[in-house]
Every structure is written in C-alpha cells, then in structure tokens.
C-alpha cells in the first residue's frame, strides 16, 4: 500500500495540491491509524493532512475519486469450456480470467502490469498508444494472440468457437486498457502539459500584435500570481534573515548591568530593511493595455513585501486607479479604466503634467517609480522637465517598454529622450522579463 500512497501523492502534486515530504509522512501515519477498509474514513484522513485550502480540497476530491476508482470491469457471462479448450488456455491465466468473466482477476492483473510497464510515468498525449500496448503485453496479451492463432489452425474448425470468444475478449481488454491509460494520463500528465503551456506563455510577447488568447488568459493570470508569490516568499525570507544580524555587544553589556554583569539578555544587531514603496504609471492605450493589466496583477500580488503601491493610468489624461483596482479586482479594472480614459490620443507630456500637479508629493527617496509604456506620444511635447523632476525625487525610475530598443526614437517615439532620466530603461514584453525586473527592484531594498 505504501507504493500506492506514493503514487497518489504524485497525482496530487500533478493536480497542483502541494504535498511536502513532512505532509506525506503525516498522511502515511494517519492512514496507519485509520486503516483502508472504510473508504470515507480513509479519504478524510488523507484530506485532513494534505489539503490546506478550499481550492485544494476540491482538487483533492477529484484526484482521489479518479485515482481510487475501481469500477468493476464489464465482462460477459462465463461460458463452460470443453476439456480441449481448457487444455489450450491452461498456460495463460489472463485467457482463463477473460473466459471465466473474472473481473477481479483482470483488474488485479492490469494494476500489476501497469506498475511493471511504468504507465504512471506517462507525460504526453502521444504516449498513450505505446503505453496501452506495453500494458497489454505485460498482462499477457501475446499469449492470448498465440492461443487464437493455434485455435484457428485446428482442422475442421474445431477451435473457431474458442478463437472467436478470445478475439472478442481481446477487443474488450484493449478498450479497458485504453481507458486505464487515459485515466493515468489525466492523473499524472496534466501538470506536464500545464508546465509546457506555462513555459510558452511566460515568453509570449504581450504587445498589440501578441495579444492574449482568451483560452490562455486564466492560465496567465494564475501564472502571474504564482510568480508574485514566489518573489514574496523569497524576499520575506531574506528580510527575516537580515533582521537576525550579529551580536550587539554594547547593548548586551548595557542590559547585563541589571543582573550584576551577567549577560542574561542577549541583544542582536538589526539591519533596517525597507519595504518597497512603488509608484506605477501605466499607459493603457490599446498597444500596451494587456501588459499593463498583468503588471498590475503582479504588483498587487506582492502585498507581503510591498509597503505602498500607488497606481496611475493614462492614455491622454492621467488618473489614479488604486481605488478602481481595489473595488473591481485587477481582472475588471482595465475595462473600468478604459471607460474613463481609454481610446484617447496618447500624450505622455500631459500625463506627466497631471502627475506632477496632483501626485508629485507621493515620491520620496524610498520610492521606486515603474513606468510602463511604449514612449510614443503622437508628436506632442514630451515634457522632459517633468520627467527630470520625477527622476530627482525618486529612489529609482524604471521604464518598461514592450517595444524592441531598435524602435526607440523612430517615428513619434521619444523613448530615447526619456531614457536619460531613467535608472533602468529596457524592453519588457513578456512575463519572464517582468519577473526579472521586479526581482531586481525588490533585491535593491534588501541589504547584502
């Protein structure tokens, strides 16, 4: 049963239910107490030790029912065998089981053959046919095929009846093996397919020509949140490590005076670790609206390590959108923003003027400003003087441009002129590049 539990833990991980080694040990110990005979008690014991949220409980239930599905196989009523027929199938336990309609023996043979054939290692849809054939060979299909061939060669059609029954049984066995392999694919290969899609999506360009397919949109939203959680965990851990510091001898000696010079109370040096204060200014014109939405989703998922996040959006006029994001969630916020300021002629100079007039006091030496846009201002005044003010008042100015650098300065692009007032200005058109940039921002706030 230990092997079965280990395979079940693998299936849970494939279904995005996190199972650590410690949790796997706890689940094994719980099952040792409850036993396996009571299915409900067995399931509840595993669920209590492995599922950690309502979403994981739902995924656990679906995985448990699929993994431990033991629906009896359909078998025809057994037909009596003549002495000669019994002699022909005597050396094949599988042939005897299918002719006698022994569903339990067939199921057990399939489970054992699947373990020997490594069916649980299936990763791709294209492997199903090969895995099905390997499973049947491990069960003893070749013995049945040999019996059929010998029976058909008997004179006067003496073996036709046995051959026909085994031929029908072989067809049913093939269907059952296909269904079994499909179930293993659904259990174990889903994560591999998802990982392949995620690898493709993190490198997908999110500019006007590389919009997000609605089929992939939900997956990308989840991927953005996963990336944000990964960074949040990483920098929360670094912050705790930095706070431990080294022994503060002066403070320890000062405290020891109350105890006759005995250092009962140890004091540690503490490094002050700033939590990032971030101001985001997003161009939400059609060319970069998709990327803006994912940027805001990413940043709002970093609540644990970001002290303050002020978000602003513009196409012509600039407006604060933090309240809109809080009230409508990021998924619906862009639509609300577009209803207010969308479909206007992009004007970076006017956006900077609006920001300087109403929100410049939000910047200080602890603030990182992240600007997302292609720097195309329709030949309007770019207001470089205001861009310099933003640069001078901030800790850092980072400009993320979805366009390649070779396009900067061409046509109505003034990106090459804005870049002089940015600490970092780089192409950033994919989620992979976005994660790398935000990682660099957070790292700058952590002492090394």
Description:
- The protein is an alpha/beta fold and 448 residues long.
- The chain folds into three domains: 66 residues; 110 residues; 197 residues, Rossmann fold.
- 57% of the residues lie in helices and 7% in strands.
- The protein has a six-stranded mixed β-sheet, sandwiched between helices.
- Strand 4, helix 17 and strand 5 form a beta-alpha-beta unit.
- 33% of the residues are buried.
Poorly predicted segments: none
With strands numbered from the N-terminus, the spatial order across the biggest sheet is 3-2-1-4-5-6
CATH architecture of the largest domain: 3-Layer(aba) Sandwich
Under CATH, the topology of the largest domain is which? Rossmann fold
Strand content: 5-15%
User: Helix share of residues?
Assistant: 55-70%
Largest sheet: 6 strands, mixed
Protein structure class: alpha/beta
Give the assembly state of these chains: single chain
The H/E string reads HHHHHHHHHHHHHEHEEHHEHEHEH
Overall tally of structural domains: 3
Keywords:
6 strands; Rossmann fold; alpha/beta; 7% strand; 448 residues; 3 domains
Structure, briefly:
By secondary structure, the chain is α/β, with parallel strands linked by helices. Helix content is 57%, strand content 7%. Helix 14 links the parallel strand 1 and strand 2 (308-314).
